[in-house]
Amino acid sequence: MLTKRIIPCLDIKNGRTVKGVNFVNLRDAGDPVKLAKKYADKGADELVFLDISATLEGRKTTREMVLKVAEQVNIPFTVGGGISSVEDVDILLKNGADKVSVNSAAVKRPDLINELSAKFGNQCVVVAIDAKEINGEWKVHLAGGSIPTEIGLFSWAKEVEERGAGEILFTSMNHDGTKNGFANEALAKLSQYVNIPIIASGGAGTTQHFVDAFDKGKADAALAASVFHFGEIEIIDLKKEIKRNNIEVRL
Prior knowledge:
CATH architecture: Alpha-Beta Barrel
Helix content: 25-40%
Strand content: 25-35%
Distance between the termini: 15 Å
Largest sheet: 8 strands, parallel, barrel
CATH superfamily: Aldolase class I
Number of helices: 10
Order of helices and strands: EEEHEHEHEHHEEEHEHEHEHH
Radius of gyration: 16 Å
Structural class: alpha/beta
Shape: globular
């Protein structure tokens, strides 16, 4: 059985870690480099580092910060935000990132996924999908969730797999920051559509929510932000609880 992963997410804006609810009402959560080191030391399996306003502001991910994070951590980390070319990814990987996350740019130009996979290998390519359930249908949203599309979550997930994505980071906008649990029904359905790992994101509030994401949602990894940033859940305690539920994690 593959080990399930716990992944703290650092949403970055203006050089600071921030966290909101349903993608809005952001509040400061601290210095990203210090938080990254803390999580690496406390047993996180990976980190995700997202420059959440890069696409909206039409700029690239903060490369200097990536370099600083890479110097402090000894676990894999993924970088996303404003990535739109092979050149962008080349720089980030050279600065120390292990994987990159593409979202809006991949929807606008799906060939980007093929290009990145061909150049760097699919193990480096995470496609992030922000989706919202509207009248019973999950629709993909772009630019930090601010631009709705008519693209369906499940058909898009299948396409990104076929184009060479190595992993999907699915964030439910309905659940994001609510601490009411992950979108387990959608996660379970996603796992039937694709054969690549799925990272669950949006809704973590308790240790049981993580257990449910793995058990009911069939997720391969679970990502969270505020419960870790504000000390509500300690990673080691979370992993022990997951283990008690007969789910394999790295302690």
